[in-house]
Design brief:
Blueprint: H1 3-14, H2 23-33, E1 39-42, E2 48-52, E3 59-65, E4 70-76, E5 81-87, H3 92-95, E6 99-104, E7 107-113, E8 136-138, H4 144-150, E9 156-159, E10 164-165, E11 170-172, H5 176-195, E12 200-206, H6 214-220, E13 227-235, E14 257-260, H7 266-278, E15 284-287, H8 296-299, E16 308-315, E17 324-326, H9 327-344
Parallel strand pairs: 3-12, 3-13, 13-16, 14-15
Antiparallel strand pairs: 1-2, 2-12, 4-5, 4-9, 5-8, 6-7, 6-9, 7-8, 10-11, 11-17, 14-16
Helix pairs in contact: 1-2, 1-5, 5-9, 7-9
Length: 354
């Protein structure tokens, strides 16, 4: 990944954008794609669509979601502590003892999720951490009045974890779910524009995926695309914490994954795999039994059915501040999307032939 593309990824990672509060990430994304797009459109909830007007009859869309898991302040106690509610799949086993940042109307407020010292905990407490709603945030306030001067009920926040490079091309950061997919969608769009593909290409950044693909449902209502590729992280199976009873061959560094089954349209999947083969790009395959758990689940049922596939970025330790990806997989994913758009120019339809 070159310096300019890494700077864009760092800008996305620096944005704190829990579901329902995605403005910071959306601004960074729009600022980047605007340079390459014929136009950029946004809607009332902050979904963003960049458009490259091709000369052909085919159109494809690359989508990633801008939101991340986090929490919201739900109560300010009289003694100055905060009770919080999870936004998305916040993991109660990693929250305690973590630093947090809360976004208020007046700026950022720092805090920590309280954790009793190991000397003070009773035997067995480590085995059953309390629910997030039973945990508390300490912002240093002396009492409830002081805390209310700093934050308000409903203010969103995230756990703090600064990005750090690991060995080789590995990267650790919070929010790689789904800044990784968001980067791939934008970069796939830019690379398709650089190829001057004849297909019309849409790059889409959605909101509120972690709350049930809500933004994708809004965008899919009138997005005029012949095929959609939804880019999100997927579980890597190559670390000791991966459960032995969950069969998977997905590893970091071997390229993005193309998912087969469920929402994943066989013609879109086949076209992605063929594009990877033609351009000599690494790609992995994973099976899907029920739902993808990504924006693909919203796009594929829209408008009577839109051919859709999920492109996965292998990710270790999902929904924790310890998420790890291989940036080579992001680059390969962007290259694959551009190659897919190029091949789509010659297609009249992605429909299954019966």
């Amino acid at each position: 990944m070159d310096d300019a593309r890494r700077e864009f990824l760092d800008d996305l990672l620096a944005a704190r954008s829990p579901s329902g509060h995605e403005t910071a990430a959306q601004r960074a994304w729009v600022d980047y794609v605007r340079e390459y797009a014929d136009r950029v459109e946004t809607d009332a909830y902050g979904n963003a669509v960049a458009v490259h007007e091709g000369g052909g009859d085919t159109s494809v869309a690359f989508a990633g979601h801008a939101d991340e898991i986090g929490f919201a302040v739900s109560e300010i106690t009289d003694d100055g502590f905060l009770r919080i509610s999870p936004v998305g799949g916040l993991d109660r086993t990693v929250t305690r003892g973590s630093q947090v940042r809360i976004e208020t109307d007046d700026g950022t407020v720092n805090g920590v999720v309280g954790q009793a010292a190991t000397h003070l905990r009773k035997k067995g407490e480590e085995e059953a951490p309390p629910n997030v709603t039973e945990q508390h945030v300490d912002v240093g306030a002396a009492d409830g009045e002081a805390a209310r001067d700093l934050v308000s009920v409903g203010d969103p926040g995230v756990l703090v974890a600064e990005p750090q490079d690991l060995a080789g091309s590995r990267l650790n950061a919070r929010g790689l779910d789904n800044r990784a997919g968001l980067w791939v969608a934008a970069e796939g769009f830019r690379r398709a524009v650089e190829r001057d593909v004849d297909a019309t290409v849409y790059a889409v950044s959605t909101v509120q995926e972690e709350l049930g693909t809500k933004g994708a449902q809004m965008v899919a209502f009138d997005l005029d695309a012949d095929a959609v590729v939804a880019v999100d992280v997927t579980h890597a199976a190559d670390d000791p914490s991966y459960p032995a009873d969950r069969a998977s061959e997905v590893v970091l560094g071997d390229g993005p994954t193309v998912t087969r089954g469920a929402a994943n349209h066989p013609e879109v999947v086949a076209s992605l795999r063929a594009a990877a083969e033609d351009d000599g790009l690494p790609v992995q395959v994973e099976a899907q039994r029920l739902t993808t758990g990504t924006d693909a689940d919203a796009f594929f049922t829209a408008q009577g059915g839109v051919p859709t596939a999920n492109l996965g970025v292998p990710n270790r330790y999902m929904h924790t501040p310890a998420e790890v990806v291989d940036t080579d997989d992001l680059v390969a994913g962007a290259d694959l999307l551009a190659a897919f758009a190029d091949r789509a120019t010659t297609r009249k339809s992605f429909a299954v032939e019966l």
